[in-house]
């Protein structure tokens, strides 16, 4: 009898000791108090929990109220022209635009059974497209909206590969198999942020995009505010979030627009998850409001495709930007929006930019340009053909190319020597000589200019235009942290 009682006490004592040791191992005053195991309490039959687990499925209006994909299959959810003169030359013969890629055409996702749809991204592994989704090519007709797996939501001329809240790992894996709107300017060689050489190695998976810098982080942080501000001035539109989209005709052509624009019915009754006005029944399901919303064009259950797109930008200068209401935007942003319009089959888009230095917002309307789009498609197919053939584009002077070369070759073999081509050696020597001569000429000109300036701050040319200004100030000392230096030192001429 006594032994049975002791055996029954041992698990409780062990549990209490375990909780006490865990609590004493923490550093907060609250957790320094020993914790004790809670006694197990059974719910009586017919209680709240058993009632919630009663037999029979929940009603449609009780399902998925936290934003999960609806399990029922079959019901959808919700300036500057770009010309050859603006593009850096490739330096190699053009690759034919007709490609038979061994890369996955897109990171297609299939719906898993159950209450929550699961997205599975296949990444770099070769995949077979679903029968309802055609391969890339101008002769392939687009699939009908009613065909294809239920997981591929049809949005205009595109299909949704990933929802807006998909994990970043899935996002990167799906983007690797195509060219996105943010990458088309890189492919064209007109992006100030990235280079074709660096993007090529990212597509092969040998380099990653690296962590976000402050510029990208600030841009994403400002997007919701810019969108809300624009929506206040344009109540005729409802703003919708879009995920990773791909053209139904060309699965390698991808885009992730910041917002979609859907004409608003202004009824105020069909906002999913919010109580309706005037005593109407609330739309409690984020994705399936039921037949009461069949006449509302903004209801998420109908998933009305956008009629236009909205791109949200921030900038610290007006360089490349025209007056408000025009179509004058930087070429790389214009290429991005044109690519998005081509993916969704739309005719017009809007770029809204918030300028940090003046705290002003300007809006620019960009019309679809078939000539520019066809040019971009050709260059994108050439780039993907290079990726397939593992034929990197030529190096250029972009800072992203320098970073890529350093990352690809981080180590130095002190005993190794490499013979470079004669033309490369001669070009390097000429560039170094020209740099030294230009630097010496610049120092001479600066000293001559200082002699003319005297104590004046600003120098003007004969036409009255500002040439330069002089600044004199004290700089505080600062400590330079450790860093890895990777540079080339020119050899002295013998």
From TrEMBL:
<dbReference type="Pfam" id="PF09588">
    <property type="entry name" value="YqaJ"/>
</dbReference>
<dbReference type="InterPro" id="IPR017482">
    <property type="entry name" value="Lambda-type_endonuclease"/>
</dbReference>
<dbReference type="InterPro" id="IPR019080">
    <property type="entry name" value="YqaJ_viral_recombinase"/>
</dbReference>
<feature type="compositionally biased region" description="Basic and acidic residues">
    <location>
        <begin position="58"/>
        <end position="67"/>
    </location>
</feature>
<dbReference type="InterPro" id="IPR011335">
    <property type="entry name" value="Restrct_endonuc-II-like"/>
</dbReference>
<feature type="region of interest" description="Disordered">
    <location>
        <begin position="1"/>
        <end position="101"/>
    </location>
</feature>
<protein>
    <recommendedName>
        <fullName>YqaJ viral recombinase domain-containing protein</fullName>
    </recommendedName>
</protein>
<feature type="compositionally biased region" description="Basic residues">
    <location>
        <begin position="1"/>
        <end position="23"/>
    </location>
</feature>
<dbReference type="InterPro" id="IPR011604">
    <property type="entry name" value="PDDEXK-like_dom_sf"/>
</dbReference>
<feature type="domain" description="YqaJ viral recombinase">
    <location>
        <begin position="170"/>
        <end position="344"/>
    </location>
</feature>
<feature type="compositionally biased region" description="Basic residues">
    <location>
        <begin position="35"/>
        <end position="45"/>
    </location>
</feature>
């Amino acid at each position: 009898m006594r032994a049975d009682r002791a055996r029954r006490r041992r698990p409780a004592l062990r549990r209490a000791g375990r909780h006490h040791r865990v609590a004493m191992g923490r550093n907060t005053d609250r957790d320094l108090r020993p914790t004790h195991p809670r006694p197990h309490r059974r719910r009586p039959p017919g209680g709240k929990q058993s009632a919630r687990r009663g037999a029979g499925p929940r009603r449609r209006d009780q399902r998925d109220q936290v934003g999960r994909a609806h399990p029922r299959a079959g019901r959808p959810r919700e300036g500057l022209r770009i010309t050859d003169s603006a593009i850096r030359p490739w330096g190699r013969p053009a690759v034919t635009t007709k490609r038979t890629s061994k890369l996955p055409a897109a990171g297609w996702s299939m719906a898993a059974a159950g209450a929550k749809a699961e997205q599975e991204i296949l990444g770099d592994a070769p995949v077979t497209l679903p029968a309802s989704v055609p391969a890339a090519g101008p002769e392939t007709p687009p699939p009908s909206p009613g065909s294809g797996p239920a997981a591929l939501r049809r949005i205009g001329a595109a299909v949704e590969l990933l929802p807006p809240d998909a994990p970043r790992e899935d996002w990167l894996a799906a983007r690797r198999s195509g060219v996105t709107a943010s990458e088309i300017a890189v492919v064209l060689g007109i992006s100030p942020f990235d280079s074709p050489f660096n993007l090529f190695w990212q597509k092969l998976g040998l380099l990653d995009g690296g962590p976000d810098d402050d510029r990208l982080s600030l841009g994403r942080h400002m997007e919701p505010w810019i969108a809300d501000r624009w929506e206040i001035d344009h109540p005729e539109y409802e703003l919708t979030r879009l995920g990773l989209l791909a053209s139904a005709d060309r699965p390698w052509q991808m885009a992730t627009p910041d917002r979609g624009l859907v004409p608003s019915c202004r009824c105020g009754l069909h906002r999913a998850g919010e109580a309706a006005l005037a005593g109407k029944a609330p739309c409690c399901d984020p994705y399936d409001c039921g037949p009461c919303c069949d006449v509302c064009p903004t209801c998420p259950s109908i998933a009305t495709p956008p009629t236009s797109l909205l791109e949200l930008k921030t900038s610290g200068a007006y360089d490349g930007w025209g007056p408000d209401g025009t179509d004058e935007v930087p070429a790389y942003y214009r290429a991005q929006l044109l690519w998005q319009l081509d993916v969704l089959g739309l005719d017009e888009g809007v770029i809204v930019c918030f300028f940090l230095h003046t705290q002003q917002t300007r809006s620019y309307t960009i019309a679809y340009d078939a000539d520019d789009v066809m040019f971009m498609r050709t260059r994108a197919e050439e780039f993907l053909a290079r990726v397939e053939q593992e034929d990197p584009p030529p190096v250029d002077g972009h800072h992203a190319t320098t970073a890529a070369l350093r990352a690809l070759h981080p180590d130095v073999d002190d005993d190794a020597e490499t013979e470079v081509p004669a033309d490369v050696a001669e070009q390097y020597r000429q560039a170094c000589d020209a740099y030294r001569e230009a630097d010496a000429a610049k120092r001479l000109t600066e000293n001559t200019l200082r002699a003319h300036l005297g104590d004046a701050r600003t120098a003007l040319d004969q036409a009255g235009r500002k040439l330069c200004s002089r600044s004199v100030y004290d700089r505080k000392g600062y400590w330079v942290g450790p860093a890895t230096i990777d540079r080339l030192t020119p050899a002295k001429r013998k």
